[in-house]
Structures are given as structure tokens and as C-alpha cells.
From TrEMBL:
Keyword Oxidoreductase belongs to the record: yes
Position of the signal peptide: none
InterPro entries recorded: FAD-bd (IPR002938), FAD/NAD-bd_sf (IPR036188), FAD_monoxygenase (IPR051104)
Name of the protein described by the UniProt record: FAD-binding domain-containing protein
Limits of the FAD-binding domain: 310-370
Keyword set includes Flavoprotein: yes
Pfam families given in the database record: FAD_binding_3
Record organism: Zasmidium cellare
Keywords linked to the UniProt accession: FAD, Flavoprotein, Oxidoreductase
Top-level division of the source organism's lineage: Eukaryota
Length: 434
């Protein structure tokens, strides 16, 4: 490949499978940094998604957005993101201390909760027309290192395309993950499930009371075998309500998202005092109730294909229980590091080095967050035998809550990545797969 004045002779072709948060953030960055490259997102879903739930983005995620581009951080405000002050307030939900306020989780800056679809729409506006292709489900992948563009994607409509690199941002059921790791690393069901809904604030006030709803915090209720959560979104006009359960045995359904018997929820919320009654009011007033199974694949030995032309990001790379609210933040951190290393690429032969640096830095960080999230899952459903639902013992843990998530210097990580990339540009095993 001949280069002229640092520019490539031919346009590099990058495909991104899946059109979620990780994907849109990465596409925004790549199309801005490399307007001469061909960047395509292939999203299986035929229309704009309308998912009725919000996500909380902590300091690290807000910082990562800003480092990718200030415009992405602005998208959070544009989508009606609500600053939570205090960020997270922990309450006891069951037992003799039901209703006791344990305390607030200290965070370096307020967490921001945002309606997922609103955020997605704000991100989508920040990528050029023609980049996102809806209704394109990736079906299979092949690699030919002698070909001009070594990675070939085949879609479920039988069309194909060939690219220089493929980034799998296709979520927990990732086809790209399956291609790289095979069936041994497929997601599995945890023994829990959750119900989620976003309701107008007036309805929430009626169920929970005005005083409860006036505090713009994320309330987390720890109980025996369950965790309840409420927070604001849509500039405070709506409230998200979640009831999650652990220890419920194997998931007996084929689909991960099913319609649910309201009587079962009544039984699950029986021991939860006033908060249980308020939650029930919200969930029972919906025409139908649904449950989403807890699923995870917390262990991933590599994010790369053997030739390092294909990489995993977001939930496709590693997915863990949502009890620290860290998944979307990690997806954004992935997009930041991919933008950093791919931003340095000036030739197709740089791609494996760039993706190996990404893998070597991101995998340990995600593994630590996955381990912390699994620990949090036990703690927040009252299943840590040392803590249970004892307010004093829970209070003792607040100062270190989520510390794995905040304790990161993202600019330092970018510097490290740039250094590793420059050291190994063109070499075959920089930051090698382990
Ligand atoms: C109950 C719950 C609460 C949560 N709360 C938080 C929170 O507060 N904060 C937080 O940071 N995270 C939270 N998370 C986690 C967060 O939702 C995920 O980690 C995040 O959305 C992952 O984004 P992604 O872009 O990797 O994947 P996704 O958003 O799942 O996007 C993947 C996309 O790929 C598409 N796709 C799939 N297969 C194919 C294919 N073969 N071809 C093409 N496209 C395909 C899908 O249609 C989808 O659009 C929560 C998760 C749950 C379950």
C-alpha cells in the first residue's frame, strides 16, 4: 500500500455490526476523523428502536463521550438527560428495616439518567446520512487475508460486502462473538429477571408520593432476593421503574423477553412494604406486564479474530449483570478506545496493530467491571451472606461503591494506547492476544 503525504491511496472500508450505543459513538468518531473512509453500520432491526427504559451514565461514561467528541456529550443533554443529585440513594426494601435510608453513594460528578431511545436518536443525528443501514442482519463472516478487503460479511438477505475491518457491536447475542469464540462463550441465563417501565411523572407521583419523586436521585432498594429502582429521565418529565429478582431458578422460556403473569409479581412484591405497593400500582396499571431474563457472558478470552481484522465491542465483547449500571458506560469506553487507535491508522496494514492494542487495554478493564457487577448483583439482592439487608453493613460499603467504574484516567488510557500503537505499528503481535 503506497501512501502519499500521510494519506492512503485507497479508501479503507470499516463495517460495524449492530446499531446500538457503542456503534453510533464509534461511527460518529470514525466518520469525523476519517471522512475519506467508507464506514457502514449494519443494524438488524428494520426500524428505529423504541425501548422503554433509561440508562444511568456515570462520570466515566460522560468523560468518554466528551473525549470522543464534545458533540456526543451534548447529545446527552439534548436527549433530556437528568442529573441525579445525589447520584444513587440506597434504601432497605424488605425485613424489619424496610423503608430505612442507608445513605448516598458518593460520585465524582452527578450521574446522568437518560431515556435510551432519546439518547439513541440524538446520537444518530451525529452520523452522516447513509452510514446506518437498518434491516441488515449479519448472518455469517469469512476471512481471506489475500483478498483486497479481507473480511466478507454475508447478510440474512443473502447480500455480501467485503471490508478491511469489522467491529462487532451487535449486543449480547452477537453473531460476531459467535464467529470469533464459538458456542462455548455464548450468553447464559442467570437465575433472575426484571420488569422495566417508563411512566409520566404525574403517574409516578400518584404511586410513590410527590416528596419521593421530587428528589432527582436514583433510588436503589435492596431486599431479600430482589432489587427495586426508580430514577428520572426526559428532563424530569418521566420516571423509570424497575423491579429485578435473583434466585428464581432456571429460565424456562425460549425467548429472553416474555409476557408475565401479574399475580406472580404480586407475590414477588408481597414483603416490600410501601415501596412494593407503589411499584405494584405502576406495573398493574399497564395493559400487559413483561419480564426480561437476566443474561450474561462475563468471560471472554479475546475480543479479536486470529488475524485481528475483527473485534468485539459493547455487550458483544462482554456482558454482565446490570447492578452497577455500567454496561452502556463500558460500551462508550470501548468506542473511545477504538476511535483512539483507529484514528491513528494510515494504512490497512495498521489495523491488526490498532485492534490488538484495543484488546490488550480494554479486556482487563471490562473483566474487572464484570467481576464487580457480579459481586454487586449478590449484594444488591440481599444475597451477600456478610451483609444481607442490614443497613449498617450496607452503609459501610457506600464509600467504595462503584469505585472500579470511576477509578479510571481515560486520557491516560488514550496516551497508553497511542504509545503502544506507535511502538508496534505494523508488527503482528503488539499487545498480543492472551
Ligand atoms: C435492566 C438493565 C438495566 C441497565 N441499566 C444500565 C445503566 O443504568 N447504565 C448502563 O451503563 N448500562 C445499563 N445497562 C446495560 C446497557 O443497556 C448495555 O450494556 C448497552 O446497551 C450495550 O450497548 P451495545 O451498543 O453494546 O449493544 P445493544 O444496545 O444491545 O445494541 C446491539 C445492536 O445490535 C443489533 N444486532 C444484533 N444482532 C445483529 C446482527 N446479527 N446483525 C446486525 N445487527 C444486530 C441489535 O438489534 C441491537 O440494535 C442495563 C441493562 C439492563 C438489562
Amino acid at each position: 500500500m503506497l501512501k502519499q503525504a500521510g494519506r492512503m491511496e485507497k479508501t479503507l472500508r470499516i463495517a460495524i455490526a449492530g446499531g446500538g450505543i457503542a456503534s453510533l459513538c464509534l461511527a460518529h468518531s470514525l466518520t469525523t476523523q476519517h471522512p475519506d473512509w467508507s464506514i457502514q453500520i449494519y443494524e438488524a432491526s428494520p426500524q428505529i428502536r423504541d425501548e422503554g427504559a433509561a440508562i444511568g451514565l456515570a462520570t466515566n461514561a460522560q468523560e468518554a463521550l466528551k473525549l470522543i467528541s464534545p458533540s456526543l456529550r451534548e447529545a446527552l443533554d439534548e436527549a433530556g438527560g437528568v442529573e441525579c443529585v445525589p447520584a444513587v440513594r440506597i434504601m432497605v426494601g424488605t425485613g424489619k428495616d424496610s423503608g430505612v435510608c442507608v445513605g448516598d453513594v458518593p460520585q465524582p460528578t452527578p450521574q446522568i439518567t437518560v431515556h435510551r431511545t432519546a439518547f439513541w436518536n440524538a446520537l444518530r443525528k451525529r452520523i452522516p446520512d447513509g452510514v446506518l443501514q437498518l434491516g441488515k442482519r449479519l448472518a455469517s463472516i469469512s476471512t481471506d487475508l489475500d483478498a483486497e478487503h479481507p473480511v466478507t460479511l454475508t447478510f440474512s438477505d443473502s447480500t455480501t460486502t467485503s471490508v478491511d475491518a469489522l467491529i462487532g457491536c451487535d449486543g449480547i447475542n452477537s453473531t460476531v462473538r459467535q464467529h470469533i469464540l464459538g458456542p462455548d462463550y455464548a450468553p447464559f441465563y442467570t437465575s433472575g429477571y426484571n420488569h422495566r417501565v417508563v411512566v409520566p411523572l404525574a403517574e409516578a407521583e400518584e404511586a410513590f408520593g410527590k416528596e419521593y419523586c421530587s428528589l432527582r436521585t436514583q433510588y436503589g432498594w435492596i431486599g431479600d432476593g430482589g432489587f427495586l429502582l426508580t430514577d428520572h429521565c426526559d428532563e424530569g418529565r418521566s420516571m423509570q421503574v424497575i423491579a429485578g429478582w435473583s434466585d428464581k431458578g432456571p429460565w424456562p422460556y425460549e425467548a429472553p423477553f416474555v409476557e408475565w403473569d401479574k399475580e406472580r409479581l404480586k407475590r414477588d412484591l408481597e414483603d416490600w412494604g410501601d415501596i412494593g405497593k407503589a411499584m405494584l400500582k405502576i406495573f398493574l396499571s399497564r395493559p400487559t406486564l413483561h419480564a426480561a431474563a437476566g443474561r450474561t457472558h462475563p468471560h471472554t478470552p479475546t475480543y479479536l479474530s486470529p488475524s485481528a481484522h475483527i473485534a468485539l465491542a459493547g455487550d458483544a465483547a462482554q456482558s454482565f449483570p446490570p447492578f452497577l449500571g455500567a454496561g452502556a458506560g463500558q460500551a462508550i469506553e470501548d468506542a473511545l478506545l477504538l476511535s483512539t487507535v483507529l484514528g491513528l491508522v494510515t494504512s490497512p496494514s495498521d489495523i491488526p496493530s490498532a485492534l490488538r492494542v484495543y484488546d490488550s487495554i480494554r479486556r482487563p478493564r471490562r473483566a474487572a467491571i464484570a467481576a464487580a457487577s457480579m459481586k454487586a448483583a449478590r449484594l444488591m439482592t440481599g444475597r451477600d451472606p456478610e451483609v444481607g439487608v442490614d443497613p449498617e453493613r450496607i452503609r459501610g460499603l457506600l464509600p467504595v461503591w462503584k469505585k472500579e467504574i470511576f477509578g479510571v484516567d481515560l486520557e491516560g488510557v488514550q496516551r497508553e494506547a497511542r504509545g503502544l500503537f506507535e511502538k508496534g505499528r505494523g508488527k503482528s503481535d503488539v499487545g498480543g492476544e492472551s
